[in-house]
Amino acid sequence: MMVITDKAASLYKTASISDEPLLESQMRLVAPMISTATPDIRPDDRKVLELLGLRGRPGRIDLVEALRQGLPSSTFQRAAERAGVSREEAIRVLRLARASVFRKVAARRLLDPDESQKVVRLARAVLLAEYVLEDRDRGQAWLTEPVPALGGQRPIDLLDTDEGARAVEETLLRLEYGMLA
């Protein structure tokens, strides 16, 4: 699927010879060119559900409903394993309540919606890193080693917040398109 990203749109809105913003009519002409030139490489919901070991109709609304109800605790273990980190480290970096998660895993209960969202955030980052770096091991290594473009922090340590996850995603997208040295 091809999309126009918010970042690309804002760049094209302000890019002109006279440094004046493009008119809305000019944007309508430029947008199709951007949308066909910029593939959306972010993992789709089907791949996220697959990584987490969930079956069913893949779709955004289905995932939203699953998150609202809470994901099976086994999804936490699968995401941590795929990221190449221990359950302890995943709990720490996602800022989950250790006792609560271990109790739910032992009893095979559902995670709460907040815990579930963090697990999905980790799964999306793992899939995108694997795609961009073209290898599971390299994706795991990138997530768990300091990255200069992220202020020297490990990408996995930023996944506890939406903004941190966006920074990780944007860095991976810049890597994919050759925008990082």
**Class by helix and strand content?**
mainly alpha
The proportion of strand residues reads under 5%
From the N-terminal CA to the C-terminal CA, the straight-line distance is: 27 Å
Rounded average pLDDT: 80
DSSP strand tally: 0
Largest sheet: none
Pattern of helices and strands: HHHHHHHHHH
Radius of gyration: 18 Å
Percent range of helical residues: 55-70%
Shape: globular
Unreliable spans are 1-23, 25-39
The total count of helices amounts to 10
Number of self-contained structural domains? 2
Q: What are the key terms here?
A:
10 helices, 181 residues, 2 domains, mainly alpha, globular
What does this structure look like?
It is a single chain. This protein has 181 residues and is mostly helical. It has 2 domains: 6-37, no CATH class; 45-176, no CATH class. It is 62% helix and 0% strand. It is built from 10 helices and no strands. It has helices at residues 6-14, 24-37, 45-51, 60-69, 74-83, 87-94, 98-107, 113-133, 136-144, 162-176. Helix 1 (6-14) packs across helix 2 and helix 8 (113-133) packs across helix 9. The chain is globular. The two termini are 27 Å apart.
